[in-house]
Amino acid sequence: MKIGFLGVGTVSMAVIEAMATRGGDQDTIFLSPRGEKRSTELAAKYQHCVRLDSNQAVIDASDMVVISMLPNQVEDALVDLTFRSDQIIASFIAGIPPSGIAKLTAPATQVSQLIPLPAIVHHKGPLVICPAHPDVEREFAGLGDIVILDDETKIRVLSVTSATMSTYFTYQNTIIDWTIANGINPDTASKYVRSLLEGLAIEGQAATQAELPHLPVEHETPGGLNFRNRTGLQEQGWFTDLYDRLQDTYTNADLKAKPKE
């Protein structure tokens, strides 16, 4: 299958890198000139990546078209482009569901939305596909844990769930900073904390659904250090505040708003 990318930004580059390093035969990938630096780098690095002169040229050459650009740019970017009815559309656009993209790509109405996250470059993390499509699942297999949604109204829920990445790294770095401030060498502190969190993530992945609620108490001793930190944060409303923050983002965030300068 020939795959075309309209927009070669950070997310597209991570996906293309992951595709190139997962093994097996490589499909031809056509790159739009949108994102000149990255598309030029990829075309120079990988023989199966070909940079074309226009978005329309990418569409004309492709069986599957991946659309990856900011939500507030997509309508203007697609308005003068012509798609074919036999084409499959894989949209990375946040805030516009598959039914909305299908209106912009008609007569190409086989549209799935994907939510690729940065860890995809390491073949890790979840990859949402909504709705399921066998060709999309096949072409993006091996890039992470594929999560299928059939109801496009639920995409926003997982988008907000994903929007905890910067919070996670702030949490990580705060622990590292405290460790350094209390006399541990920066390299040692960084290595220890990152390895600690990686180990916990592995344990979380290995647990069954029924075991998840018990993980906190299984990783603490009553009255011990873990107990003191968790219950102290709980008494301060830390976990309730996090839940409420997610709900506020879900209710009020405008995913199509123009990013602030």
TrEMBL record:
Gene3D superfamilies in UniProt: NAD(P)-binding Rossmann-like Domain (3.40.50.720)
GO aspect biological process, one term: L-proline biosynthetic process
GO molecular function: pyrroline-5-carboxylate reductase activity
One Pfam family matching this protein: F420_oxidored
Residues annotated as domain Pyrroline-5-carboxylate reductase catalytic N-terminal: 2-94
Family, similarity comment: Belongs to the pyrroline-5-carboxylate reductase family.
Protein name: Pyrroline-5-carboxylate reductase catalytic N-terminal domain-containing protein
Native source species: freshwater metagenome
